[in-house]
Amino acid sequence: MRNAILLFVLVIIGLNGKSQTEMKQKSNLDSTELEKFLTVNHNYIKIPILKITSGHLLIKAKLNGVEGDFILDTGSGGTVIDISKEDKFKIKIDTLNDEAVGAGGSLSLQHSVNNTFKLGKLLKKDFEIYVMNLDNVNNALTLMGMNVVDGVIGADILVGNKAIIDYSNLILYLQL
């Protein structure tokens, strides 16, 4: 399984033009070699992830200069902040209201632009986020005896920065 994941990583970042022998050699990389390969050769940054009791992946990030706790959600189309954290993160809501649709149904969604978002060394200026009620997520976390989260980091960051998640070592790699 480990070799299959590494092989997949190598294909994603553009080594699919290499011969199968070269691919097999690269697929035997350990985590230190993977880190060096990504950070030195392909301009990725390394960000630690914490796996919490619920099984979610938790990550620290800064929004508008304020640090918060975020769930890493590969299924979310964008970065979302809980509406109760609007003041904490100095978010200015646009007049645009929309609707988010997910596994739990649909919810009201508000829009905010001109934010700064920092995750490790990655800095996004004029960052667009969405604001919605995340009570369903936070209530479930509270029932499990865990702390609430401020929001969710979604595909806008992950896809936009060619994310690679090293689950076995709990590391998120993002390309700058």
What would you note in describing this structure?
By secondary structure, the chain is of the alpha+beta class. The chain folds into 2 domains: 2-42, no CATH class; 48-175, Cathepsin D, subunit A, domain 1 (Beta Barrel). Helices cover 27% and strands 38% of the residues. It is built from 5 helices and 11 strands, in the order αααββββββββαβαββ. Strands 3-4-9-5-8-7 form a 6-stranded mixed barrel. Strands 1-11-10 form a 3-stranded antiparallel beta sheet, with helices on one face. A hairpin with a 4-residue loop joins β10 and β11 (171-175). The radius of gyration is 18 Å and the shape is globular.
Strand content: 35-45%
Q: Treating each run of at least 4 consecutive H or I residues as one helix, how many helices?
A: 5
Tell me the series of helices and strands, N- to C-terminal. Answer: HHHEEEEEEEEHEHEE
Silhouette: globular
Low-confidence stretches: 1-27, 102-106
Rg, rounded, reads 18 Å
What's the CATH class label of the largest domain? Answer: Mainly Beta
Q: SS-based structural class?
A: alpha+beta
Give the CATH superfamily of the largest domain. Answer: Acid Proteases
